[in-house]
Amino acid sequence: MSKLIYVLNGPNLNLLGKRQPEIYGTEALSDVEQNCKSLLVDDYEIFMGQSNHEGQLIDWIHEARDKACGIVINPAAFTHTSVAILDALNAFEGPVIEVHISNVHKRESFRHHSYVSLRADGVIAGLGTEGYEAALRRIISLTRS
Ligand code: DQA
After folding, report:
1. Which ligand 1 atom minimizes the distance to the CA of 111?
2. Is pLDDT above 80 for 1?
3. Per-residue pLDDT tens for 17-28?
4. Residues catalogued as catalytic
5. Which domains does the chain have, with CATH numbers?
6. Which region, left, alpha or beta, applies to residue 76 given φ > 0 means left and ψ of -120 to 50 means alpha?
7. 123 Cα distance to chain centroid
8. Per residue in 77-124, pLDDT tens?
9. Residues of 106-140 as b/e, b for ≥16 C-beta within 10 angstroms?
């Protein structure tokens, strides 16, 4: 089985660390990538992707069908709007963990609904950027043989 895990990030997360640090913290996405890499075991690897474009995220999810054993995804605002990302994830067979840096349930009501949660095997919200590490650990424990 492939030991590659896709860690996908949606719109505006390229500004992580600079954008609303009171909500999203001061770590950049490159720090998140380093933290994730430091907990990899065995032959596991990650592909870290960020895009502000829905179609690019969908293309990566399609690519993951052949290449990855699991997906960690923070779809950002597309969480609350994108049936297309949900459909793409439904075409992926491995485990999917949805991550939100902030506790979306403590925020505006439009953030309380997630299309992606209809597919996700686990949902993490409000752990800050540590949520990515928790999600990665979960994918590894579900796919390690
Ligand atoms: C987010 C929460 C979303 O509601 C928001 O649109 C984001 C980031 C989070 O990580 O907390 O861009 O997914």
Report:
1. 4
2. no
3. 999 999 999 999
4. 24, 100
5. 3-143 (3.40.50.9100)
6. left
7. 10
8. 999 999 999 999 999 999 999 999 999 999 999 999 999 999 999 999
9. eeeeebeebbbeebbebbbbebebebbbebbebbb
